Amino acid sequence: MEKEINGMPPIAIRSKRVKDALELREGDRVPFIPTTNNFNALGYGVTIYDAMKDLSVLKEPFQKYLKQYDPDLAYIPPFFPIDPMETAGHTGARWPGEYHDLPLDTAYQYIDQEFLGDDDWDEYLKDPSAFMLKNVLPKKYKGFAGLSMISPALLCNHAVLQLGVFGIPHVKETLLNMIKAGEQVGEYFAKAKDLTMSIINAGYPVFGSAVAQAPFDEFADYIRGLITTCMDIKTDPELVKEAVERWGDVTIPQAVATAKIQHAEYVFIPLHAGVDDFMSVDDYNEFYWPTLKKLIETLVNNDLTPIVICEGKYHTRLETLRDVPKGKVIYFFEDVDLATAKKKLGDVACIAGGMKTQHLMSGTTERVIEETKKIIDTCAPGGGFIMTNTLALDQVEHSLMEAWREATYKYGCF
Prior knowledge:
Elements: H1 10-22, H2 39-42, H3 48-53, H4 59-69, E1 74-75, H5 82-88, E2 93-94, E3 109-110, H6 121-126, H7 128-140, H8 152-155, H9 169-201, E4 206-207, H10 215-224, H11 226-235, H12 237-261, E5 266-271, H13 281-301, E6 305-313, H14 318-321, E7 330-335, H15 338-345, E8 350-355, H16 357-362, H17 365-379, E9 385-389, H18 398-411
Parallel strand pairs: 1-4, 5-6, 6-7, 7-8, 8-9
Antiparallel strand pairs: 2-3
Helix pairs in contact: 5-9, 10-11, 10-12, 11-12, 12-13, 17-18
């Protein structure tokens, strides 16, 4: 566990260690920042279902995790609350429990959906907010079906007669469901704040509570459908450009505002559709990167640090990723050659990665130590490197995690 040094409390020491890496300097050692997921429940005898039903059950497991692994930044994974999802009739995911008849340790799973059909583009681009209110939300949430009967334009009429729509039983039921779901989410936020503060009070800076997405990903995930949007790049490129740019114009300022409300220092940005397998380098640079770059730069200009999670293969994107403010961005990689990433990005951005999660699931202590030393020897010199894992942790062996931590401490000192 971190000790106070020269009057600096542990949380300040950990924060400085991460800031040194962010700003491409060698600190006292390489920061150790595991990215966990369901491990914070499963690794400590709590089911995923119980964590999603009541976030407060994770307070004690988190304290055990912090004491056991002493991360330099504590990642707060999303255990999305079951109660409001069931109240709203959420159709975009599956989760454990009776609602979907799934075992209690089933991981939350997103379902790709298409709400914007080929013939809907004109209607959507003419008035995106009205389209989402009447066509997306009632399908995404079965409990909000009455929204399809509401017309925002008519509600702005000078007479009150259009307000009669709110008295229609179907609409009234929807509004009551929305209020109930909102109250349930409010309860979740209160518990999330309590959990976060317990981590900070234990001496650990946090990330993962403030989240933003690349505008391309959000439009694809929430409106058009991921696979369909990737195909649209070839069939309707100008429509995709306009839709993604307009989406970013609305959501990027909201991401900044949300992070500021939380007093967050870091903004977690998980990238989905930008992988090598989904689009070419040219398409990435034309359709994906411009709005992602705008998001990154806007966060930086507002004194927020983007932690960009490059999911999947990212071998061909490294040159593009250089185009960010120097010493202001952290890139976490799942699948990339780290030596190449260090060479191409090392003078611009901090990189993170290295430990294959598979080694922590079913490897050997010797292999974990060997891989840790190899990664540090390759990436640590000169600073700008953070030790983390590839895939978010669910079920791993504690003994292998401990070996990884100790090897990072031993070989990561400058």
